[in-house]
Structures
1.
Amino acid sequence: MPSDEPFALIIFGASGDLTKRKLVPALWSLFQGRVLPEPFVIVGVARSEMSDEDFRRRMREAVGEFARVQPPAAHVWERFASSLFYCPGDPADAALYDRLGARLRQLETDKGTGGNRLFYCSTPPSLYPAIVTRMGASGLQREGNGWTRVIIEKPFGRDLSSARELNRIVSQVFTEDQVYRIDHYLGKETVQNLLVFRFANGIFEPLWNRNHVNNVQITVAESLGVEGRGAYYEEAGALRDMIQNHILQLLCLVAMEPPVSFDADPVRDEKTKVLRAIRPIPPDRVDQVAVRGQYGPGFLEAHRVPGYRDEKGVTPDSRTETFAALKLFIDNWRWAGVPFYLRTGKRLPKRASEIAIQFWGTPHPLFRRPDPADRLDPNLLVVRIQPDEGIALTFGAKLPGPEINIRQVTMDFRYGASFGGEPPEAYERLLLDAMHGDATLYARSDWVDVAWQVLTPLLEPWGAGPAPKFPNYEASTWGPAEADAFIERDGRQWHRP
C-alpha cells in the first residue's frame, strides 16, 4: 500500500470550471472519507483577484453544488477550508512565480507539509508551455527535500508536432516519472474494473481473441452540444477531444496483453504496444475507414436546440466535426482481422459510454428457426462505463413450453445494486494516485506520441481537404447516415446503448 505523505497542491487555473466542478469537490470527498493525506495545503492560482476568504467561500459553494459527499457540519468544512489559500496572478507572468514560491515556503513551514508539491495545470492548453517553463526558471520544481510532480490536463497537444514540442518543454523541467498526463476516463470505476474483469476471471480470458470475438465497438455518446465551449471546440473537434485520448485509452484496455504486474510501467508498456500494432491508415483510404459529421438543429426532450453552427463561438461555415467514427485493426497475434469500431458524437439521443464485445455465432445452427430472418444473435458482452455502470452478457435461453423456442436474455451486473451507493468520482482516484506517486492510470509520453501518429492520417486530410457537406445529422439522432452505411458494408450494425 502506498504511504500517505503531507503535500501542497497548487492549482493553476483555480477560478475555472474544472476546479469548481471536479477538483475541489473531489478533494473534499477524499477529506470526508478520511483518505486525503494530512497535513495538506491547497493553493489556487488564477488571474482573478481574490482573497483567501473569497476563494474559500467560492469553493464552499462549489462543494455544495457538485461534490459527491456533502458537508455534515460547519466545523468539518472549516477544518478543510483552513488549508485553502489563493495566490492571484497571471500564469504567463514570471513575477507570479517568485510570489508563489514565497507563499509556498511560508505555508509549508506553517502547515508542516515537508516540501512535497503537486502542481496541477488546469488552464487552457496554450498556457502549459509558459507554466512549465516559468516553474523551471524559478526553481519551484527543485525546492525543498520533498517530491515534486505535475499533472497536465488534456489535450496534450493538438497534433503530433505540438505534442512532441510540449513533451520537449516538459522534459527540460521535469523527469518523466514526475509528469502525470491525466485522462479522467481512466479514473472511472468501470474502466478500472475492465482490467479486473479480464485478468482476475478465468472464464473470459480464453475467449478474448480473434478466434471468438467478431468485432469490438466503443461508443462515447453525449446528448449535450458544446454548451458555451464553441470557441474551444472549433480548435478541437470530436477526433481530438474524445478519440485521441478517452477512446484510444479504452481500446488499449480492451486489447492489451496481461502485464507482468499491475505496476505503472508494465501496464503502460502493454497499452503502448497496442497502439504500435494498429494498422496505419492509408491516405487514399480515409473515406473507407472513417466518417465525420456535424449536428444541425433538432429537438432534445421536446425542446428545440440549435445546430452546431448556431452555437456561440462557432463560425457560420464551420467544418469542425462533432461526430466521428472509424474502424481500426490491431495487427498482432491476438486480434488479427478483428475490426475495432470507434464512435463519438455530440447531440446524440442519450448520454452513454460503453464497450460492446460481439462474439462469433455458433459454428452450426442446431436450433433451426422456422423463419430464416428470425435468427439468434451471437453472444454480446457490454461494459457500461456511464451511466448505470455495470456489465451485461446476452445469450440465448429456451422459453418455457413444449417447443424449442429461444429468446435472448441478459445477465446484468450493476454497480449500484451490488455494492450500494454511487462509485467515487474519477478525479478522486486520480488525484489520490498522484499524491501517492502511482502513475498507472496516467498517460506516458510515448503513448501520447503514438496515439497522435495513429490519427495523423485522418487529421491532415480532414483539415486540408474540401469542405464537407455539414450539417449532416439532426440533433438527437445517432449521427450521419454515412456512419450506419459505413459499418453495414461489413455486414454489421452499431450496438445501440
2.
Amino acid sequence: MTTKNAASILTSLSLRRGSAAAPGAPQRKRRWTRWVIGALVLAGIAAFVLAPRPVEVAAASVVSTTPSQQDALLTASGYVVAQRRAAVASKATGRLVELKVREGSEVKRGELIARIDSSDMLAAIAAAQAALAQARVGVAQADASALQAAAGVRQAQVELGNAEAELVRAQGLKDSGFTSPQALDAVQRRVDAARSALASAQAGVASAVAARNQAEAGVVLAQAQIKVQEVNLNNTEIRAPFDGVVLNKNANVGDMITPFSSASGTSGAVVTMADMATLEVEADVSESKVALVKVDQPVEITLDAFPELRLRGSVSRIVPTVDRAKATVMTKVRFDQLDPRILPEMSAKVSLLARRPSDADLQAVLAVNPRALTQRGGKTVVLRITKDDSVEVIEVERLRRMGDMVELRSLPAMSGAMAADPAGQAGSSGGAANSTATGLAGGAASSAASGAVAANVGPVPSTSALKSGDRVVLDADAKLQAGMKVKIAAPGGGK
C-alpha cells in the first residue's frame, strides 16, 4: 500500500465519521434556540406586566397674574393710538428733491423734513426784485422831475411878480401922460406871459408828483410780489408741525407733490408723524358694561408685545357714541407714565379697577388652582409634570388667596427624602377630593407601584423653579411619587 492510498483511506474514514455525527448536532442547536427565544418572550411578558403604567391624572397650569386683577371690574381690548397725529404735506406743487427723514426719525417742531423743487419760485423772486429796482429808479426820476418843476414854478413866480410890478408903474406913468398906451400894452403882455409860464410850471409839478406816485405804486407792487414768492419759496420746505416721530414715509425723491394729491401720479402727504407724548389706549367697552366706567377711574394696562409689562393709567374720556356693528363704546385711557417701548397701534388690554393699584399690586406673581397643593412630609408641594410626562415634586409656599386661585412661591430644591416620601406618610391636600388617578390594574400593578415608590428613594431634586405655564397635577394621590409617569386625562382640565 502506497502512501497515497493510505491517505485516501484515512480521508474516507474521516468523512464517514463526520456523516455519522451530523444528525444529532442540529437537533441540539434547535433545542437551545427554542429555549433562548422562550426566555426572551417570557422576559418581555414579565417586563410588560410588571412595568408601571402611566397614571391618569387631571392637570392645571401655573399662571402669572397680578394682585391688582382681584380689583378688576371688567376687561376691555383696544389699541395704542397717538392722539396728536399728522399727515405732513406740502402747500406747493413740485418735484420732491430732498427727503431728510425716514421711518422712526425723531423730529423737533420746525425741523426741515423735505424740500421740493424751488427753481420757479427763485426765478419769480428775481423778476420781482428787478421790477422793484426799476420802480425805485422811476421814483428817483419822478423826484428829480418834481424838483425841476418846483424850480420852474419859483422862477415863474418871480417873473410874474416883476411883470406885475412893472405893469403897475406903467399904468401910473400912463395916467400921468409919461408913457404911451403901446408901452402899457407891452408890459401887460409880459405879465400875461409870466402868468402862463407859472401855470405851466405848476402843471409840471403836478405831473412830476403823479409820476412819483406811480413809481411808488410800482415799488409797492414789486415788494408784494417778492413777499408772495418768498411765501411760495417757504412752502417748498416741508417742516415738522410739532415734536414727534416719523411713522410712515409716503413719498420718495423724484415724486411729484401736490397739496391735496389731486392730480394722477402725484403724492399728497410726504410723511406721517405722531406725537409720542400723546399716546393713549382706545379700548372698546361693551355697552352693557359702560355704566361701570367713570372718568379718572384707575386702570391696569398690559401690552400683547410685552405681557410682563404692567402699567398704571386712568380713564381719560368716554366717547359719547356707540358702535352699532360691535355694540361697544370707545373709552380712551391715558398712561400715568409712558414707557419708551410703547408704540402706536400696539394691541393692549385694559382692566378697569375698583381702586388705584400700588407698585406691589402690579408685580407679577404665580398662582395656581388650590387643588394642585398637597402635603408631603409636612410640607406644601405641587407635583409638576415634566416634558417627558414624569412627576417632579416642587416645594412651595402658599400665600394669599386670589379669587379662585392661590398665590404661591417655589422654594429651593427639595431634599431626596422629601421628594421620595413613602405613600404611608403622605397626606392629602386639606379637604381636597380624592385622587383622580386610576391607579395600576391588578395585583401585578400594585406590586409595580410599590416597586416604583421604592425605586424613588434617594435624591430627586427639582430641576428648576416653578414658572408660569408649568403643568401641575390636581388632587394628587398619595401613591403618586417623583419620577412616576403620568397621562393627562383632560388637557387644561380643572383650571
3.
Amino acid sequence: MKKVFENKYLLWIVGALGILSILVLIIGSFFNRIDVDSAIILVEMERIAEGYIPYKTMHLNYPPLWFYVNVALKWLFHIPYGCYPFYLVVHWLYAIGCAISLFYISKRFGANKIISAFVAWLFFIVTHWPQGNTILFEIPSIFWGLLSISLFLKWRYSHPALQIIVGILAACSFLTKQFGAGFLLLVLWLIITSTSSSKWKQVGYYLLGYSLPLLFCLTYWGTNIYQSILFNGYGTDVMDAYRGIETTFTSKIERIWGNLVHIVNRITPVVYVAIILLPIIFKQNKWREALVCLFGIGGFSLQYFFVHGGHHYSLYMIPFALLLIPIILTLNVNKYVRGAIWAVIGMTVALGIYSAFYNRVWKIYLHNGKKQYDGQWVMGKKVADIVQEGETVFIPHGGICYIYYTANLYPSSCMADIGYGVGPMEVTIATASKWVSNTDYVLHFTDEMMYDLYQGQDYEYFYNDSIQQYVNQFYSDTLAKDIVLHHLNKPKIAMELQ
C-alpha cells in the first residue's frame, strides 16, 4: 500500500477518477425530480423573499438561517422565481465546504494528505444516496458544524475573539436545522479534553459566541421562534398514532438502535472496526478523537427518539463515521490487522459506489429523473392556469407538495403541516375543517397520473379520510383529467386540459 501512495502517476490517475466521479454525481443531481422536502422549503424561502416574516406574519417550523442566506443570494444575483438549479448549486457549494473541513479535520487527526483527500471524496459518495444530492437543511447544517470543529482545532490556543467565532459558527448549525445542536456538545468535548491550561476560559468564550446569535433571534422574533422550531408537533408519537402503532419508550430505543446499526450506505463496518480497536486507540492516545466521532454518531442517532425521519437524518452521522478512517489507518498495528482494516474500508467504498452510482445515476438519473422533473413543471403549469392570483390551494398529499413550488402557489396553512402533517397525522374532521376551510381549492391527483409521473416507483401519497369527507361536503370538482381541483362552493364544472 505504501508503494501505491508513492507512485505519483497512479495517484494522479486515482485523483482524476475521484474528481470525475464527484462531477458525475453533482451533474446527475440536476437531472432528478424536485424532492418533496426541497419544494416545501423553497416555497417558504420565496415567501420570505416576498416580505413575509417568519414566526410573525407566516408560520415556520424550521430555524431561519438557511432561508435568509438563500434570500440574500436571490436578491444579490437577481434570481427569478422557480430557478431550482441555482439553489442546487448553492447546496453543492455547502457540500464542498463540508469536504474541505473533513480534509482539514482528518489531517488534524493524524492522517496524511492522501488519506484526508480520500475521506473528503468518500463524503460525496456515501452522502449521495441518503438525499445528500438535493436541497435540504442537513448538508448546510453539517457545514457550519464541521467548520466550527475545524476552526477550533486551528484556533484552540488563539485569541478569545476567535473562540467566540467558533461558538457563533456552531450556533449557525442549530439555526440551520434543529438537530445541529449536537455540534454544541461535540466542540465542548474537544475543549474540555484539551491540554490547554486556559480551557475553562475557552469554554466561556465559546458559550458566549454560541449564545450571541440565539439571543439575537430571541430579541428579533421573541419566544415564537423557539416554540415553532422546537415544539412543532411533528414526531414519532403522532406518526405512530396514524399508523395505529402505540409509541413506547422501548419502541423509540429500538428505532434509534435500528438506525444506528444501519447507517446509510453501509458505513457502519468502519464503526464496528473502530469499536473493536478501542483498546489500541486508547493505548496509542487517540481516544479523544475517536470518542468525539463515536459521540457524534451516537448523539445524532438520538434524532430518531423524536422523529421517524428519512434517509437524510443519517447525514449528521456520516462525517463522524468517516473521520474514524484516519484514526484507524494511522494506528500502529501488525500487517494482518491493517489488512483487515483496509478490507473493511474497501467494502465500505464498494457499497457506497454501488448505492450512489447504480441506485442514483443509473436507475434514476439516466432513466426517468429528467422526465419526472419535466412532469412536475408540466403539472405545475396546469394548476397555475386554473388558479387565479390571490387564490389559495390546499394539497393534502405529501408526494405532490412540489406543486406549491412549480405552480407558484401560496398554501392555506403551514407548509410543514400540509406537507408532513396531513400524511402522517391522524386528522379529525375538526382539524380538516381548520386547515381546509380557508382555502379556495383542494388539489387531488389521480392514481394513474401519480403512477405515470413517478414511473411506477413508490411515492408518498396521502389523502386523509376526514379531509375527503370535508371536501365532499363543501367543495365541487372544477377540473378533471389527471388533476382534480375541488373548488369551494362553486358549481361542478368539468374541464378537460390539453
